[in-house]
């Protein structure tokens, strides 16, 4: 076990004071350099954008109830899916687990007092807000209709919407991501507690480390790409315009060189959370710990080598397509390692079906579907058939929503007692986990069928025989919506009225559970010393533990 | 410098245990930042590579219109300023305040000379009608391709110039702060990582010069 000498442990039931939440002034929040507070600032900010992007999605789903699409014009529909995509990707998913949960727990997991560069950490949040302001400005002025991918030459030459302000927003928010990545990498390298060797790190730290590598190496390329788009709109030299000697495929290469690693930025942190949850709620060490850790790194590295699988029908060379296809299959290996090892961890574990565990199990199921359909898409000939159809939409929503958002919700429930010092109502938590799982599948599974039958993405008018699938999907989206609103309500309620959690309600290992809840400003009174491996659970010892009805 | 324990009080931030940890973190953070810069410039280098391989003849013809003399002198100037920067780091480590200030100002001075020469060159480019879209005139074949070359020329040297300007500002601000003796009492890490940045700016130019200027002057 981790032995921490004289750590500020409060006896269960006591609310630790003073803690990082003790100061209440607005100034103390806006000028904070405390990684925990910055995580919470990020939480509120991304929820704001999640709300806008969800409304856009809801409007689309309502529109799609009827095959003739009478509710809105095609232009409005184009703008809605662009709002939904850009905001969800850059202003919700990418910062979701890293900037909120990662910021909150990473330094504590390492036994550090803060991240390496706390002021930069706060700068990151301000840049994120500034980027969000640009994006919001673009929406208020009338929105963007290019899709989140900004494909040229449409975005540079023909689009009549507010591309530059949206590109500027994503550009600025990108620097927020880069700063977070730099902070996490340096903190993990330089600020681990004594005895905390690399292969004693929690798997969440490994996944954040791999994620940060991608943030740091991919995001600058996106920044340059968006810069070039904006300059093209102003300047019009035509480096992406074939009429003037330019090359639109160059744009796609640059965009996907970023955006493929980015889609792994939108799943790896979720995998890290799930590793924590599976271990804690089966009271076992993660099976093949080292393999799971290395799988995160493998996914990060392979993530840089597969961007061409987004471009199988773009006119890129057939040989490039074959190589990208083969490399894309390789990603299935580390992903499979993770899924098999989580499953093996469950075996003979003492499994507790608490809310975070329900999310974790849901994650595994949804990720398996999302991952396996990814293999269909990595197959050249199959991709030609389903490219740009609802099949793609269903596939990446299974990864990004079924995977990442489920992981985010699981992690938020798991660390909520640490964040607020109070417990959420367990029954409501279970109901919400169930609602999101059912609602999600009902929303997105029909889209696989639609895509296979040939419905292209980004159209709001479709043949009448497809209507039944769209009605199913919209019905599912309503349930999914309920599943997201419920936690919003009971989290707010529990922050004030929830039962006091004590320092370690889950009896979990990990340094973040060795300090009081909510933690004091510098996390630990005395730097903890680590003397053993992570996840030192024993299912036999904890057999009487009843975490599911805590 | 291996005299950590006796000077680890005043300037070690609260999240760090000691001076060495803080210094290691700052250096490592700067290296990662420079890696992001490589990828940032990398987008433009990729575009250059693609278009040069598509239109090699037009790129050579266009490159012939750059002022290789100014580019060459500027290369020498940047390399020399990098030498001064390296000496500035040493001066900070040796706690030589006077020398540190002089060397920082010297580094900034040669950066400014670089910028002035670059400005002269841009002015000449304008008079030669080489600025894309605004006043571009080309009397050889494929003006569109030559325009892409000059667009890349302005984008790459312009982005580099922004970085030089940021570097000059850092040197001047640090020169002012150095007057308080802050950097010469053991807290030399900021000078070190500013040095890393300045050398990076130098290295970028080492790649830009042959690609943009020498392509047409073989």
Structure commentary:
The complex is a heterodimer of chains A (550) and B (218). Chain A is mainly alpha-helical and 550 residues long. Helices cover 65% and strands 0% of the residues of chain A. In chain A, helix 2 runs antiparallel to helix 3 and helix 9 packs across helix 14 (390-420). The longest helix of chain A is centred in the N-terminal third of the chain and has 37 residues, at 74-110. Chain A starts with 25 loop residues before the first helix and ends in a 53-residue tail after the last helix. Mean pLDDT of chain A is 93; it is low at 1-12. Helices cover 74% and strands 0% of the residues of chain B. Chain B has helices at residues 19-54, 56-63, 68-93, 97-127, 143-178, 189-212. In chain B, helix 1 crosses helix 2 (56-63). The termini of chain B are far apart. Residues 1-8 of chain B have low confidence and may be disordered.
Spell out the blueprint of helices and strands.
The complex is a heterodimer of chains A (550) and B (218).
Chain A: H1 26-30, H2 35-63, H3 74-110, H4 118-140, H5 154-158, H6 163-190, H7 203-235, H8 248-265, H9 268-282, H10 289-302, H11 318-346, H12 355-378, H13 380-386, H14 390-420, H15 426-453, H16 467-497
Chain B: H1 19-54, H2 56-63, H3 68-93, H4 97-127, H5 143-178, H6 189-212
Question: Any key phrases for this structure?
Answer:
heterodimer, A: mainly alpha, Cytochrome C Oxidase, Chain A, globular, disordered N terminus, B: 218 residues, mainly alpha, 74% helix, elongated
Strand content of chain B: under 5%
Using the 3D structure, state the CATH architecture of chain A: Up-down Bundle
CATH superfamily of chain A: Cytochrome c oxidase-like, subunit I domain
- Measured on Cα atoms, how large is the radius of gyration of chain B? 21 Å
- The amount of beta strand of chain A, in percent, is under 5%
Low-confidence stretches of chain A: 1-12
Number of domains of chain A: 1
Helix content of chain B: over 70%
Q: Round the mean pLDDT of chain B to the nearest integer and report it.
A: 93
Top CATH class of chain A: Mainly Alpha
């Amino acid at each position: 076990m981790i032995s921490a000498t004289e750590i500020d442990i409060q006896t269960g039931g006591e609310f630790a004071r003073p803690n990082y939440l003790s100061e209440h002034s607005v100034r103390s929040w806006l000028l904070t350099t405390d990684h925990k507070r910055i995580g919470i600032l990020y939480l509120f900010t991304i929820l704001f954008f999640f709300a806008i992007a969800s409304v856009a999605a809801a409007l689309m789903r309502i529109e799609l109830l009827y095959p003739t699409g009478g509710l809105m014009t095609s232009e409005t529909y184009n703008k809605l899916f662009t709002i939904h995509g850009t905001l969800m990707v850059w202003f919700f998913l990418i910062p979701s687990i890293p900037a909120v949960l990662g910021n909150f727990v990473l330094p504590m997991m390492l036994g550090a007092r803060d991240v390496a560069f706390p002021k930069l950490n706060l700068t990151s949040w301000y840049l994120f807000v500034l980027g969000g302001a640009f994006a919001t400005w673009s929406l208020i002025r009338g929105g963007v209709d290019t899709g989140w991918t900004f494909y040229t030459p449409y975005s540079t030459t023909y689009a009549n919407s507010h591309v530059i302000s949206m590109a500027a927003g994503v550009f600025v928010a990108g620097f927020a991501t880069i700063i977070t990545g730099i902070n996490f990498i340096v903190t993990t390298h330089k600020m681990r507690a004594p005895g905390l060797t690399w292969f004693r790190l929690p798997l969440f730290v490994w996944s954040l480390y791999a994620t940060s590598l991608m943030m740091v190496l991919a995001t600058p390329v996106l920044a340059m790409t968006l810069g070039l788009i904006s300059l093209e709109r102003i300047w019009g030299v035509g480096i992406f315009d074939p009429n003037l000697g330019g090359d639109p495929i160059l744009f796609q290469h640059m965009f996907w060189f970023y955006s493929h690693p980015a889609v792994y930025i939108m799943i790896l942190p979720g995998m890290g959370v799930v590793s924590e949850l599976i271990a804690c709620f089966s009271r076992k060490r993660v099976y093949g710990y080292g393999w799971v850790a290395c799988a995160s790194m493998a996914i990060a590295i392979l993530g840089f080598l597969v961007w061409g699988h987004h471009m199988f029908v773009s006119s890129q060379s057939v040989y490039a397509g074959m190589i990208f296809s083969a490399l894309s299959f390789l990603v299935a290996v580390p992903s499979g390692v993770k899924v098999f090892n989580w499953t093996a961890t469950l075996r003979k574990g003492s499994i507790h079906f608490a809310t975070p565990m329900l999310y974790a199990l849901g994650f595994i199921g949804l990720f398996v579907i999302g991952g396996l359909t990814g293999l269909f898409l990595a197959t050249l000939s199959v991709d030609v058939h389903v490219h740009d159809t609802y099949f793609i939409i269903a596939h990446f929503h299974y990864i990004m929503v079924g995977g990442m958002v489920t992981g985010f919700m699981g992690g938020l429930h798991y660390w909520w007692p640490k964040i607020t010092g109070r417990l959420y109502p367990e029954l409501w938590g279970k109901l919400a986990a169930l609602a999101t799982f059912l609602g999600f599948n009902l929303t997105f599974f029909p889209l696989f069928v639609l895509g296979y039958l040939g419905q292209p993405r980004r159209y709001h008018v479709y043949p009448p025989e497809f209507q039944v699938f769209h009605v199913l999907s919209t019905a599912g989206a309503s349930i999914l919506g309920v599943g997201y609103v419920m936690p919003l309500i009971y989290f707010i309620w529990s922050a004030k009225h929830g039962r006091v959690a004590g320092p370690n309600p889950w009896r979990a290992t990990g340094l973040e559970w060795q300090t009081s809840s909510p933690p004091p400003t510098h996390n630990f009174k005395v730097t903890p010393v680590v003397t053993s491996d992570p996840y030192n659970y024993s299912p036999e010892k904890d057999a009487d533990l009843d975490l599911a009805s805590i | 410098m291996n005299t950590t324990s006796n000077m680890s009080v005043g300037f070690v931030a609260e999240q760090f245990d000691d001076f060495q940890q803080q210094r290691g973190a700052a250096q490592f953070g700067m290296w990662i930042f420079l890696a992001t810069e490589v990828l940032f410039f990398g987008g433009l280098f990729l575009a250059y590579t693609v278009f040069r391989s598509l239109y090699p003849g037009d790129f050579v013809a266009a490159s012939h219109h750059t002022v290789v003399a100014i580019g060459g002198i500027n290369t020498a100037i940047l390399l020399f300023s990098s030498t001064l920067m390296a000496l500035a780091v040493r001066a900070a480590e040796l706690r030589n305040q006077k020398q540190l200030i002089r060397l920082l100002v010297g580094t900034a001075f040669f950066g400014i000379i670089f910028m002035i020469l670059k400005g002269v060159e841009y002015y000449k480019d304008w008079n030669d009608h080489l600025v894309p879209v605004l006043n571009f005139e080309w009397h050889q074949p494929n003006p569109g391709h030559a325009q892409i070359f000059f667009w890349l020329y302005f984008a790459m040297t312009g982005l580099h110039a922004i970085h030089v300007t940021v570097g000059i500002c850092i040197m001047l601000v640090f020169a002012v702060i150095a007057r308080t003796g802050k950097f010469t009492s053991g807290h030399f890490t900021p000078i070190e990582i500013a040095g890393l940045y300045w050398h990076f700016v130098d290295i970028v130019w080492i790649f830009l010069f042959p690609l943009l200027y020498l392509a047409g002057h073989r």
